[in-house]
Specification:
The complex is a heterodimer of chains A (465) and B (270).
Chain A: E1 7-18, E2 21-32, E3 36-40, H1 47-55, E4 62-67, E5 70-71, E6 82-85, H2 97-107, H3 112-125, H4 141-153, E7 159-163, H5 171-188, E8 191-196, H6 199-205, E9 208-213, E10 216-221, H7 223-228, H8 233-238, E11 243-251, E12 254-257, E13 260-263, E14 273-279, E15 284-287, E16 295-304, E17 309-315, E18 320-325, E19 334-339, E20 345-348, E21 354-362, E22 365-368, E23 371-374, E24 385-390, E25 395-398, E26 406-415, E27 420-426, E28 431-436, E29 445-450, E30 456-458
Parallel strand pairs in A: 3-8, 3-9, 6-7, 7-8
Antiparallel strand pairs in A: 1-2, 1-4, 4-5, 9-10, 11-12, 11-14, 12-13, 14-20, 15-19, 16-17, 16-19, 17-18, 21-22, 21-24, 22-23, 24-30, 25-29, 26-27, 26-29, 27-28
Helix pairs in contact in A: 2-3, 2-4, 3-4
Chain B: H1 2-29, H2 46-53, H3 59-92, H4 96-111, H5 114-127, H6 134-159, H7 164-170, H8 175-203, H9 207-212, H10 221-230, H11 238-269
């Protein structure tokens, strides 16, 4: 952990709910002085809420927002030494460019000639010098964005908060602005906290990335750390393209997946332990040398993507992998492939099966997930607490509600080379993980069916009252 | 094709004539001295002179009625604009069902017949023991004007970037400063049209005023004219007065329209 004096903002065990919905769940992180930190995640992951708590628009239900060593939970936004660039700019429509930028200084009653000097300087910084008298609504999106940045910077904040500032711009403009923002950050030396759902933007701009999902921090690290060593399947899938596969750690530095064994660099998982494996598509290499070949495959599609070709291959063991390479291989050709030990990222499995706290409610009847199920309750009496375990592949997803035990929505889909691993959120807000060969879409409403013989009851762990 | 065009034009003129003939009738007959309406006794500005030099009968009563009307309209419209703007901001930030219910509740008084509004306000004032007069008329006018302000401010709120209030706070404005320097200027066009609408609603109200003015002899223009007409024919000098009011309203409407089309031209340039 960094020294306290280097830390400008610290979030300490923050939780926040809107109504029944928990949007932030025990968030802790720190931001170093002068750092460019990005909160990255899909929409609804809590990244904007986190930013708003730092800006002062809302208070955490639990935990503290700490700036320069002081808890600022109750400090209103207008007394915080930070400024925000809002989504869609939020310029004042009744003021021209000059007055928009000068707004903060005029409130502080700064003398007119100094205001003018500072407005000119900051407009020059964002390359908007000739636009002082323009009506803000007559400006293009990119120009409005520059004015919004100038308006936030003129108060000389210690921290600049940016809430998806480039989301409304077209691709070309976005790329240009990214470079300019990075330049500005270098030039000003102040702390930037940036929110985006665009992983490429996060990788390009940031010193540190905080990957968030469903109100929780998934991983904090440098862009290279996060890209090369994702800690879980969500991060691996969200950042860049990846092949995510089930594997088994045979022993230190030896892992099996796609029914082949590979050398790797990971240690300390134990022997014969189930793991998840990530291989980036650019890290699978073609070879003509049978001695180097680790496995064979057949190319089943090949698409030109501008810089590289994206190919899908079927391995000799029945898995599908994505490969990116500068040279194309014809569809239908047999190829020999290998992966460097360095490029295999082994991750601890987050869970091996669904487990829920359950209550036995009668002979052969058990209740969990707010639903009554039938199963074998031998060894349990009515009213006993138990743990119900259901393997991922034993959960059936149905099109219709009638035959289902309960219903939910598909919230996350992972392709694992030969099957899909889905996260289904039940109507009560709990997650069920499902392995299936059927194709579902994100957001699909599904019926969930679990057969009695697939529910295994066990005694709750001791001391876990 | 040609016949169709002629017919369309004729129809348009017919509608315009039906709409404006009564007003034109009054304007024309304000320039003659005849006591009874419809008699033309030659062009004269005598009625206008009488109106302004106070030589008409019960001149002071009319003057008082005009003054009352204006004072009530200005106060009612001002208060309604403030209340209505605050209410609109409140309703805008409600969510889901609550918002629907509040919008619905806001709409009811506008469709409710004036007579019913008048009688129910009368009963309310009697019930709470408020003596009827200036105050009750103003309160009554505020109550039926406010929904119109809400209706005018709401669309402006919808056009607003939801973050601009927060942007002002972020730049160091206290909530009061943010309201004064950002929110109100941005909502101003809606507030102005709400004010004008309230002002005219108050100006021409008869039923509500009639039931809430009590017995102290408070007259507004509408109740004065009503009483005057019942007493034995309309005082002739009212014709020039009505013509002048019509002219003023026409000018105000033109001004608003010109301003609006200028604004639209500005925004379409962008």
């Amino acid at each position: 952990m960094a020294e306290d004096k280097d830390i400008i903002i610290r979030l300490d065990h923050i939780s926040k709910s809107f109504g029944d919905k928990k949007v932030l769940d025990d968030i802790s992180l720190y931001v170093k002085r002068g750092e460019f930190v990005t909160f990255l995640g899909p929409s609804g992951c809590g990244k904007t809420t986190t930013l708003r708590l730092i800006a002062g628009f809302g208070k955490p239900d639990q935990g503290d927002v700490i700036m320069e060593g002081k808890v600022i939970n109750d400090v209103p936004p207008y007394q915080r030494k930070l400024n925000t660039v809002f989504q869609r700019y939020a310029l004042f429509p009744h003021l021209d460019v000059y007055d928009n930028v000068a707004f903060g200084l005029k409130l502080q009653k700064v003398p007119e000639d100094e205001i003018e000097k500072r407005v000119k300087r900051v407009l020059k910084l964002v390359s908007m010098s000739d636009y002082e008298d323009r009506d803000v609504e007559s400006l293009s999106g990119g120009q409005q964005q520059r004015v919004a940045i100038a308006r936030a910077l003129i108060n000389q904040p210690r921290v600049l908060l940016l809430d998806e500032p480039l989301a409304a711009l077209d691709l070309k403009m976005r790329k240009d602005m990214q470079i300019e923002l990075k330049e500005m950050h270098k030039q000003l030396g102040i702390t930037f906290i940036y929110v985006t759902h665009d992983q490429e933007e996060a990788l390009t701009l940031s010193d540190t990335i905080v990957v968030m999902n469903e109100g929780k921090i998934q991983q904090i690290g440098t862009p290279t750390d996060i890209y090369n060593e994702p800690v879980n399947a969500f991060v691996a899938d969200f950042i860049g393209e990846s092949n995510i596969l089930k594997g088994r750690m045979m022993r230190d530095r030896r892992v099996a997946f796609i029914k082949h064994e590979f050398d790797c660099v990971d240690e300390g998982f134990g022997e014969n332990v189930k793991v998840d494996v990530v291989v980036r598509p650019e890290d699978i290499y073609f070879t003509n040398d049978p001695a180097k070949c680790q496995f064979k495959a057949k190319v089943n599609s090949c698409i030109f993507k501008g810089v590289h070709y994206e190919m899908w291959v079927d391995t000799d063991t029945g898995y599908e992998l994505m490969i990116q390479d500068y040279d194309p291989y014809p569809v239908g050709s047999e190829v020999m492939l290998y992966i460097d030990p360095d490029d295999i990222q082994v991750m601890k499995k987050e869970r091996e099966a669904n487990t829920y706290a359950a209550k036995v409610i009668g002979e052969g009847k058990v209740r969990f997930l707010d639903t009554d199920f039938e199963c074998d309750t031998t060894g349990f009496a009515e009213g006993d607490d138990a743990v119900a375990t259901i393997r991922f592949e034993k959960v059936d997803l149905l099109d219709n509600e009638e035959d289902a035990d309960l219903t939910g929505n598909v919230v996350f889909i992972l392709y694992m080379g030969n099957h899909y691993h889905l996260t289904v959120k039940t109507d009560a807000g709990e997650n069920i993980w499902v392995d299936t060969n059927d194709i579902w879409d994100k957001g699909d409403f599904v019926g969930i069916k679990i057969l009695p013989q697939d529910i295994q009851l066990s005694k709750p762990a001791a001391g876990n009252e | 094709m040609q016949a169709k065009k002629v017919f369309a034009k004729a129809y348009l003129w017919l509608v315009l004539i039906v709409l404006y003939a009564p007003i034109l009738f009054i304007v024309i007959f304000s320039f003659t001295e005849a006591k009874s309406l419809g008699n033309w006794t030659g062009f004269s500005t005598q009625l206008y002179q009488n109106l302004f030099n106070g030589s008409m009968q019960n001149s002071s009563g009319l003057l008082a009625a005009v003054k009352n009307t204006l004072v009530i309209a200005v106060i009612a419209a001002l208060v309604a604009t403030i209340l209505g703007t605050i209410a609109a901001i409140g309703i805008y930030h409600l969510r889901g069902r609550k918002k629907q219910v509040m919008t619905f509740l806001n709409n009811i008084p506008m469709i409710n017949p004036d007579v019913i509004t008048g009688v129910s306000l009368f009963l309310l004032f009697v019930f709470i023991g408020l003596s009827q007069g200036y105050l009750t008329v103003i309160l009554a006018h505020i109550s039926f004007c406010t929904p119109y302000v809400v209706l005018n401010v709401m669309p402006k709120l919808r056009q607003l970037n939801p973050n601009i209030y927060e942007a002002a706070l972020d730049l160091g404005a206290t909530p009061a400063q943010a309201l004064r320097k950002v929110l109100v200027p941005a909502l101003r066009p809606g507030m102005i049209s709400g004010f004008i609408l309230s002002f005219t609603m108050s100006l021409d109200d008869f039923a509500v005023t009639f039931f809430t003015r009590g017995t102290i002899g408070l007259d507004t223009l509408s109740t004065y004219i009503y009483a005057d007409a019942r007493k034995g024919g309309l005082t002739p000098e009212l014709k020039p007065l009505m013509s002048i009011i019509f002219l003023i309203i026409l000018i105000v409407l033109l001004a608003i329209n010109i301003r609006q089309s200028k604004q639209e031209a500005n925004s379409s340039k962008k």
